[in-house]
Amino acid sequence: MQGHCDPAFSAVRDVFEQNFADGRELGAAVAVYAGDRKVVDLWGGVADRRTGREWLEDTPCFAFSCTKAVTATAALLLAERGAYEIDGPVTEWWPEFGARGKEGTTAAHLLSHQAGLPAFARPVTAEEAADAPVRAAELAAQAPEWEPGTAHGYHALTYGWLAGEIVRRHSGRLVGEFVRDEFAGELDLWIGTPDEVIDRAAKLTAGRRAPRNGADAPRAVEDDNVLERLASAYVDPGSALNRSLNNPHPGKGGYNNPVVLRAGWPAAGMIATAPALAAFYRDLIAGRILRPDTLADALRPRVSGTDRTMLVRSSFGLGYMRPAMTFFTPPAGRQSAFGHTGAGGSIGLGDPEAGLTIAYLPNSMGDQLSGDLRAYRLTEAAYTSLT
Q1: Are 369 and 220 in contact (CB under 8 A)?
Q2: Of 84, 136, 229, 293, whose CB has the highest number of CB atoms within 10 Å?
C-alpha cells in the first residue's frame, strides 16, 4: 500500500490491505475526510492489468453511477439560484417533455427516478450517446413506462440526460462544463475526460474470483429468492434492469472506451481520484457547494420502497441515494448517510452528522449480486474509527 493513514483510522488501512490479500482487488484507492482533515489517502495495486502499470497517487478511475450525485448537485445548485422550481412542471422550461402523457412531470421526478423513462425505447450506440441534447430530446418524445410520479425505478443511464437537461437549459452548459466551472475545477474529477487523463486512468477489468464472504457477513439482501430474481432479470434482455443498465451500450472496450470517457455520460461517465470524490462530499456537507438547507431538503427521501427497475428496496432524495438495499450502509450511518454507489463496487458517501466523507474506487469489477462487501467493510471501518 502507498499513501498515508491517520493512526486513528488504521482499521481502514487494515481492511484495504486485507481486500488485496484476499485477492479481491487488482488496483484501488480509498480516501476519507473527517471534517476538513484528510485522514486516509491510500492506493495500491495495478492500474492496467494488460501492461502491469502501477496505480499511482494521481491515478483516476471510472466511477460509474457515483456520477449521479455530482450531476444532481449541479441541478440543485441551479434551483438554489432560482433558475427553476424543483416541484414545478418540467414543461415550463422544457415544453417538448410534455409529450405522451408526461405533462405532469416535475424536476423532482427527474431527480428521484420517478420519470418513468428508465431506458431508451431503441438501441443507442456509444457514439449517439455522446450527443446529450439529442438524447434528451429523444427521451422527451418517448412514452413513459409508468405515469411520472406514481412509482420509482432506477434510471441507470437515462438519468444523466434527464437531470443533465436541467443543467443545460438553465446554464447553457453541459454537466461536465458546469461542474468544473462551478465547484470542481480544482479537483481531479471529470465528466467528459481529456485524452491525457484517459491515458493515465485505471483500466477496468472483470473481477477475479475471490473468496466467498463468511456466513456471518452482513447482507443487503437476505432473501435468496430475491437474488435469484435479480440474476434472472440481469440477463433477461426484456427486463427493466437489463434495458436500463445496458442501453446505451458502451461499445468496444466497454467502459474503457474513449468514446464514452470523452463524452462524459452524466449518469455514469465520471472519472475521478478517490481523494477528489471524497473532497466533493467534504465540500458538499460543509456548505461550500449548496446551502445547508438546500442539501437537507435534497436528502429528504422522496421515494422509498420496491424499485421497479432493481426489484429490491431503494431510497432516493433528489439525486442522492439514502440507506437501503441499494446503498448498503453500516448501522452507524443508516439515519444520516447519503451518496451514491457505482457498478463494480465504487462508492462516494457523505454523512453530515458524523462529519465524515468516503470515496472508494476499484478497477476490478465486483459482483454485487453475490454480495461484494469491499466498500461496506471500508465504510464500516471508517465509522468505527470515529468512536
Answers
A1: no
A2: 136
